[in-house]
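Case study B.
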Amino acid sequence: MEHESKLRLRYLLASTLLGLACASATPIEGVVRPEPGGAFLESLPGPMPDFGPFDTFSDALLAACSEILSKPNATSRHAGALDDQLRLRISTEYCGWLYYTPDHKYEMSMLTDQSRLDAPNQRKSCELPPRVNDRRYPPGSLKYIFALHNHPFGSTLSKFDIHFIVSAGQELGFEAETRAGKVRIAVIAFFSNSSQPGRPACDGFFQYVPLTGQLLKWSNTGGRWSCEQTGAIVWDAPEAFHIEKRTAPCSGSTEVAP
Amino acid sequence: MRTGNLSLVLAAVLLSCVRSPSPFSSSTENDRTIVFPEFYERMAITVGSPGEIYDMDGEILRAITIAANDFSPPDGKAKPCWKRQESQRYRVIRQGDIIFVQIYLHPKSCGRKYWILDGGVEYAISTDGRILRRRFDGEEPYEPSDVGDGGVKGTLVPASEVGRTDWPGTSPAIPSSWLDAGTYYPRPETPPAPDAGSPPLDAGSPLLDAGSPLPDAGSSTPEAGLPDGGTPAPDAGTPPAPSAPDAG
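Model:
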């Protein structure tokens, strides 16, 4: 009896998730895609409606985490009962830019889940265009701060992510001057540990800051945020890097009371 | 609900949304007890330096070939740059009777036109030529090493500092060749088209075509773009030189 209940639950879960996975052509609020059969997007519109503006990148980042993880199949921890291929199939990566405007505000672009690499039961990736088009501001006036995406399984940053952000840094700048000082460009991968489908909690993110080489893991434990350095990227040549594992607290941070 | 019915329903649902056949056709045992090594824990040796002499074990060659063929099957059809075997980079580690191969598309391989987050794959291949396991980027969660007091790792940070990038004690950690005129600031940007629509693929953006400060390996070959996976078109360029196992 208990066995049948479990099977029924798995069936319902799988059917629901697969139904969502099959609905890739279904419009998703805040997500833009290429036209069917059309070219890939080479810029993303901004700003994300009903999102910003924010005075600080921290506020914008926390809001972005919840926003991205709330998209369909952005997290797959709840699909643990399914086999690997099903879990891969039902997960989706979304990506977008957090940027700084001439009005000294932080905004997020619309998101996309476009990928020319993905195919059924395969790898997951997201192709993030190198430009945001915010019609309120002149072209070229935006400053790109964080390349945002989600990792459905809570994995750490990939070598694609590393190469992506250093390429972006070379084209868009490795740091941006803001009213509050310099902010360094970084790639961010949000994750949720939620075991229940629905609106997953923002449990943290991985971050790589090319200018400092730091690989950081940010965790949200019951509303308390902590930062840990998990390693450092060392460039052996302009195209080759290795990772020095370095588990350490993020230096200089302020201990706050629980 | 019987298991058979469950499988039938799942199979039906899966078939109903198949968009294209998977190129990953090789049988894979997917032995999850196999632990992949750290491919980036130290500097790799780049094979193929001009004038150097290299010697490769046939089992290594076979493992790379099996992985490459599974990843991008040689079907005789023209492929877009990002799907070609010669556009990928291959990193290899041998541990006992298992040869681990990592494959990923290097941004420069296709003229750095593709701004991709995630998408690599790793293989565990036995020395007798079987794929024991295949793992995609992001397939496994990060495993924390230990947890501090109260279940909190690292240093507590106020919410107002989350994501900060200016930690004290850090220093520039990128090659100086990436600097633009000695600064880390962006070079002057060529204004993009005012419309955020979808210009033709590979039409080239002002930013992407602005040139790279990186020394070019000479293998970048802009190719005729394709809307998406699958429908090959005649190649617009000469394929880049095959990539030997590399330093990534």
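Confidence is low (pLDDT under 50) at residues 1-26, 146-151, 187-248 of chain B. The remaining cases will be described in the next quarterly update.
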